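Priority: low. Protein: tRNA pseudouridine synthase A. Input follows.
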Amino acid sequence: MRYFIEFSYNGKNYFGYQIQPNAVSVQEEMEKALSTILREEIKTTGAGRTDTGVHAKKIFAHFDTEKILDQDLTRKLNSFLPPDISVKRIFQVKDDFHARFDATYRTYEYYISLEKNPFTEESAWQHWRRPLDIEPMNEACKILFEYEDFTSFAKLHTDNKTNLCKIYKAEWEQNGSELKFTVSANRFLRNMVRAIVGTMVDIGAGKLQPEDLRKVIENKNRNSAGTSAPAHGLYLVDVGYDFEQ
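Result:
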């Protein structure tokens, strides 16, 4: 039987979600806890990979077991997991339903603090030395909808078969001294959101004009885009599925 886990984590102490040698990952912690509780080796498949230091407010993973799960498994799992990983629910799905390949969209948020704030130092990019104007940043957002090849925002030397993505939503909002960027797409390339944010910040700071974003995208060259924004300001906030299919 296949089960889905809905969970969240603070990525500060992890080298991303996915298991990798000689580094602590969220996936490793999840599998270790599940295997201990269910007394069998459990392997999980996540909805996607997050980079080192990136957070997830809502993410899913699936695993298989022949056991009928205890209704109290969520509480037990939270007891075994470290404080920075929290499971919300565990539920059964169809045996061929896939946490990664059946996701219909993913949504990220990125936070920037426009004033020096010791309370968001580890949860938002502290960008208080130079003001940012979100009006041109939002103008640039509209340009993103015109393209699907985002090679310029992709991490170099990855195993991506394609750099095509369909962006459904991209917008900046300001709440007092905090900026929030929300972006939703059918898929994202590694480092893509952070590279977009870094380029948008160059636009908001007046280093680039909104229309310059077209040339950045059309160059299909990572060196054309801005520096990647710091990982600690990025959050995966939603992954969509059609569970009724």
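The mean pLDDT is 95. The two ends are 17 Å apart (CA to CA).
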